[in-house]
Amino acid sequence: MNVREPSIDMNRLFDRLRSLGAIGRGEDGKLVRLSASDNDKAGRDCLVSWLNEAGLEVAVDRIGNVFGIWRDESNEKEMPLLLGSHIDTVIDAGMYDGCFGVLSGLEVIETLKAAGIRPQRPVVVAAFTNEEGVRYAPDMMGSLVFAGGMPVEEALAVIGHDGSVLGDELRRIGYAGTLDPGFLKPHAYLELHIEQGPVLEREGFTLGAVENLQGISWQRITIDGIANHAGTTPMSMRRDAGHAAARVVTFLRDRAMASNSPTVATVGCMQFEPNAINVIPSRAMFTVDLRDPNEQRLRAEEAALATFLEGLAKAEGVRVSVERLARFEPVIFDGDLVAHIEEAASRRGLACRRMTSGAGHDAQMIARISPAAMIFVPSVGGISHNPAEFTPEADLVAGATVLLDVVMDLVRSSGAQA
Ligand code: GLV
Ligand code: MN
Ligand code: MN
């Protein structure tokens, strides 16, 4: 077979990014592909058509993770090199988060195939189910189940915020596969992703070699007070669930702002009942997202919130209940893989720095079962989970090229023939 120096087809990669980014846009122009929804099905169908066109074996496991497998008789007994990310989105999303990693993984495989490379081990691209966790908690669910961190039956039984059951929805959209999650045991895992933060752009780096990823704590808090008339109830006689919730929001922000640590705290969802202008809220339901790269500090933040909620219940005459939605400890990625990424970037003359990921990623879950690391490219203005999410094409190419180089290093170092 003829062999030539591989180089990614950036036009194919950009075309696919744009095509996938157009799937799941409503009439209002907003991109919403929540996990296991009709829009997610359309995105998955599109991805699967590309995996088929690339001549990959398509596999779907019971939690709906989609795999494009490149293997032959000569290497099928070896553990695969796994590349992956996700294609589900948040509400009113940008088009790069997750999709860039999946499509780059596919691009790398197609590039290697076209160049006549014969890797000694299979190379697989994965799109993991429900990374975002917007419809079903916890986030990173598909990779968590794949890594054995949650039983598949438990995950399939999760009820979403819209009352749907994940397993039913996966069946409905045709992505309840039959393979047991974990049917592939990765030799190593690489994930290319946009940074989703401001560090690389601010400091003038083209790439990040991600060394670690912060811990994530998600809780849903329900505060029950008493509904009453907004005009007649004196301020001192209120049991106002809405006001109590507002105090939690400001407590979290004030505490994070006053600390010298990198702790971040977010209340992203809030609902009042009965939700009427002239009725004191009887119930407030909201979420808390706490993150910190240090497990001890994250625990201390959780404990401080719990203590605050106890005092709040007494002071406001309300009842507070807390449900844990997700809890992941910080993760340290594989030192050799991180060094590999740095070396590959340096060979290409690309400015690369080691960094911590603020966002959660599937790599965090796969790190439980295999060496894992991530490559970041800059996010302009540090904006993500927002339609304005943007990474210049030159940076996308740089990221995909370094992914290609690292993959070649890994398949060759295991004896691959070029
Ligand atoms: C995933 O995007 C997360 O970090 O919440
Ligand atoms: Mn993502
Ligand atoms: Mn995301």
From TrEMBL:
Residues forming the Peptidase M20 dimerisation domain are 214-313
- A GO molecular function for this record? hydrolase activity
The record, for Gene3D superfamilies, names: 3.30.70.360, Zn peptidases
Give the top-rank taxon of the lineage listed in the UniProt record for this protein. Answer: Bacteria
Matching InterPro entries, A to Z?
A: Amidase_Cbmase, Bact_exopeptidase_dim_dom, Peptidase_M20, Peptidase_M20_dimer
Entry annotated with the keyword Cytoplasm: no
What is an example of a Pfam family matching this protein?
Answer: M20_dimer
Keywords from the UniProt entry: Hydrolase
What family is this?
A: Belongs to the peptidase M20 family.
The name on file for this protein is: Zn-dependent hydrolase
